[in-house]
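Task card 7
Instruction: Convert sequence to structure tokens.
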Amino acid sequence: MTGDEYAARIPILTGTNRDESGTIAPYPAPASLDEALAQISGLLEFNLSYIPSTGAFPVPAGPDPTLNNFNVTSRIITDGGLHCLNQATAFSGVKHQVFPDVYSYVFNRTYQPPTFTNGACNAPVTPTYPFGDPNLEYFKCHAGDVIWTFGLLQRLLPVRDEIDIPFSQLILDYWTSFARRHDPNPDMRYLKARGYWATIAQLNVAGTWDRVRPSRPTARWLQWNGKQVPYDEKEQCEALGLPLDYYELLQE
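Output:
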């Protein structure tokens, strides 16, 4: 069976949020790593007790063991449930020419809907940033990209800092360019004609959003001053039995 027989030959824009499953992994996690792994083993219906022996998911050395273990469990569920196979699908799709072009991304700036979140997925509130400081570290969880891709920021949520609005504009310019041209790289003439100067400045920083290439697959790291980065989590995906060539191995 060839690609033409089971998939339309259309360009694909695909990706995940950095910590996609942070809303699925139990939060807070148990203080015992063994208990935390047993908990998510039940969710995934897969025994994860071997994970510490791989060294692929080290436990952070922070003062809060429940947060440290949540860092591990959310990473495992993100990689095992979404991220690894998302990359493997894109890689295999272009390698076997199932899709004419594939563009990958990872959101590293998110804003959670208040009805679908937990404390780990929200930017930390500070005296200077009463709605959360997105420049500080927080988990970039499932649904935290919706506010950008649908242009809903000012309708639904308060603006957190001076970057939220231009970042929302940038993402809309990427997505609408892909809808119009099958390429997320906006036409500069289009942007200049409409005075989209913030997006133009960001594109000058980030450069071209490259399509996935089998020889060197990369993704666009979607944040302010984002860039193109190599596919990541290689060691983690291999530890979970979901390597980049996962679909190649299925054929053997």
